[in-house]
Design goal:
The complex is a heterodimer.
Chain A: E1 2-10, H1 17-28, E2 41-47, H2 57-71, E3 77-84
Antiparallel strand pairs in A: 1-2, 1-3
Chain B: E1 2-7, H1 14-23, E2 27-32, E3 43-46, H2 68-76, E4 81-84, H3 86-93, E5 100-102, E6 110-118, E7 134-141, E8 145-147, H4 150-158, E9 162-166, E10 178-182, E11 188-191, H5 211-222
Parallel strand pairs in B: 1-2, 1-3, 3-4, 4-11
Antiparallel strand pairs in B: 5-8, 6-7, 6-9, 9-10, 10-11
The chains are: A alpha+beta, B alpha/beta.
Chain lengths: ~90, ~220
């Protein structure tokens, strides 16, 4: 199996009230030097490997499509897809 | 007219929407999210609630439910579609309307009687009103802050596609105080407040919301 991680973050120009609330709470707890917090989502996809132990370019493109279609809303969020090495065989 | 009201798992206001459409004189056809048919209705309402538990993003999963296939086709062909609250979120996720709805800027759920200004009284859902008319209907949302990029916001305003705006303090951080918008063709309307909760004197802040449901026939009569 190959683990692919999709990170979804609110676009920089979109107000992130949750991140703001977390940031405020950290400051109240006494953690110094927290300038800003943004909260996003992390998806871990376990995918069957192609021949060898990796993912073909087509499969990876498919994950991009998953991220753009369902996992994120491109109007308000950016996403990043990366293959995590060392996933269980 | 025959008005379909879609029930998704987690819809809350479908029965109120059905009741509002009935009071407005329509024949109501309940539609189920899992059926890929609109049963020959003339118009569709996507009601408020928390479809699919608001998992992932509000409306993100409902958007791919079987009923949405024929609905997107019909909306593209000009059928009147009204999305209220969660329905508005579904319409944005479906790309039938531009922009998105995100968490209220103050992080709290808001529930109040809200004054709106009707900005576009030419849609099949607002033809019973006068442009500039103010109405009071309930507003209740956690993720009702309308956002879009500046170009989209400018286009919405310049093309008269802002259907309603909030009057007074902005209740949820919506950009340009937008409470509702319509698509380019003017048949698809998304609205964050709840007119279906203001159609009878017995409960709610009055009957200001009824116009959204009588507009279908008002427009048909005017043609």
């Amino acid at each position: 199996m190959v683990r692919v991680v999709v990170d979804v973050m609110p676009k920089p120009e979109i107000l992130d009230p949750q991140g703001k609330a977390v940031s405020g709470a950290l400051v109240r707890l006494g953690f110094a030097g927290v300038a800003d917090v943004r909260q996003g989502k992390r998806f871990e996809l376990e995918l069957e490997a192609d021949e060898g132990d990796g993912l073909s370019a087509d499969r990876l493109a498919e994950v991009e499509q998953m991220a753009a279609t369902l996992l994120s809303n491109p109007v308000i969020e950016d996403y990043r897809v990366r293959v995590e090495q060392g996933a269980d065989a | 007219m025959r008005v379909g009201v879609v029930t998704f798992p987690g819809s809350l206001d479908d029965v109120d929407a059905q009741r509002a459409a009935t009071i407005a004189g329509h024949d109501v056809v309940p539609l189920w999210h899992g059926d890929a048919t609109l049963s020959g209705v003339d118009a569709v309402i996507l009601p408020g609630g928390f479809s699919y538990g608001d998992y992932l993003r509000c409306g993100a999963i409902s958007r791919f439910s079987p009923v949405m296939g024929p609905l997107v086709d019909a909306a593209t062909d000009g059928m009147p579609v009204l999305g209220i609250c969660n329905g508005f979120q579904v319409l944005c996720e479906s790309h039938l309307l531009p922009g998105a709805l995100v968490r209220n800027d103050h992080q709290r759920f808001v529930c109040r009687d809200q004054r709106l200004e009707i900005r576009n009284a030419a849609t099949p859902w607002t033809a019973s009103y006068e442009p500039g008319q103010q109405v009071v209907v309930p507003l209740k949302n956690g993720e009702g802050s309308y956002v879009a990029d500046t170009a989209t916001l400018d286009a919405l305003e310049n093309e008269g596609r802002v259907v309603a705006t909030y009057v007074g303090p902005n209740p949820n951080g919506s950009l340009r105080a937008i409470a509702g918008i319509t698509n380019t063709a003017g048949n698809v309307v998304g609205l964050m407040p709840h007119p279906e909760h203001a159609v009878e004197d017995l409960c709610g802040p009055g009957t200001d919301g009824l116009g959204f449901f009588t507009s279908l026939t008002a427009l048909a009569a005017a043609l």
